[in-house]
Design goal:
CATH topology of the largest domain: Alpha/beta knot
Radius of gyration: 19 Å
Largest sheet: 7 strands, parallel
Number of helices: 8
Number of domains: 2
Helix content: 25-40%
CATH class of the largest domain: Alpha Beta
Distance between the termini: 32 Å
Strand order of the largest sheet: 6-5-4-9-7-10-8
CATH superfamily of the largest domain: SPOUT methyltransferase, trefoil knot domain
CATH architecture of the largest domain: 3-Layer(aba) Sandwich
């Protein structure tokens, strides 16, 4: 786990064991660094300061901000776990991602999903970005608070959603319904986002119960997938409030 906000949220959440926090030795003072040090001390996590060169050799992202942590892997939930209300009793509000490959986009989407109140995220096991250190940093700690699972194929997962009474809505420029007029937003629902450029695959599109779009008023014909996800997620969240 790398990045100041991501490491702070890791320590705050306390959902997985943290073995060590490593700081670069040339950092200027900052309140968030004080938080990290205090949280590590409270959790009895080893805190180690190393030279900048040593730190850069340990890090895996382009801009780790002088902070990284060694922690247990994230818990991977079973798909069926996401079909039931969450621990707070909220009906399923799921996000399925069909082949998003850019780690920065995936991290930004996960951050928006957590802030919008998504109760579960479904990722494909193949031909898509996984939750790497870069994704975790871009998500700014959101991965500590999201229930996530990976499936072999999204088309089969969509069939299981239908059997469980969860509406699946694909987001596509050619969708029939504007996202703000989606009638099923306040019911158990899964929003399905496609890959950068390619959009939803044919089988995934065919298995969705409905197709929605984001109305655009400008000259350009599309949004970045992370921007589109944020708009759609918060529009669904507005109806569920």
């Amino acid at each position: 786990m790398e990045g100041r906000q991501a490491v702070r949220e890791l320590l705050l959440a306390g959902t997985r064991k943290v073995r060590e926090v490593v700081l670069a030795g040339d950092l200027d003072p900052a309140p968030i660094l004080d938080d990290i040090i205090d949280l590590a001390d409270e959790a009895k996590v080893t805190l180690r300061e190393v030279s900048r060169n040593r730190f850069e050799n340990l890090s895996r992202t382009d801009a780790p901000q002088g902070v990284l942590a060694m922690a247990q892997p994230l818990r991977e939930y079973e798909f069926e776990d996401l079909l039931a209300p969450d621990a707070t009793g909220r009906d399923p509000f799921l996000l399925l991602l069909d082949g998003v490959t850019d780690p920065g986009n995936l991290g930004a989407i996960l951050r928006s999903a957590e802030c919008a109140g998504v109760t579960g995220v479904v990722l494909p096991r193949h031909r898509a970005a996984g939750v790497t250190a870069t994704v975790a940093k871009s998500a700014a700690g959101a991965i500590e608070h999201l229930r996530m699972t990976r499936v072999a194929g999204l088309p089969k997962a969509l069939g299981r959603l239908s059997s469980a009474g969860v509406w699946s809505v694909g987001l596509d420029a050619g969708g029939d319904t504007p996202i703000h007029r989606l009638a099923v937003s306040d019911q158990p629902v899964a929003l399905v986002m496609g890959a950068e450029g390619a959009g939803l695959s044919r089988l995934v599109r065919e298995r969705c119960d409905a197709m929605a779009h984001i109305p655009l008023a400008g000259v350009l014909g599309s949004l970045n997938v992370s921007a589109a996800a944020a708009i759609a997620l918060f529009e669904v969240a507005r109806h569920r409030a």
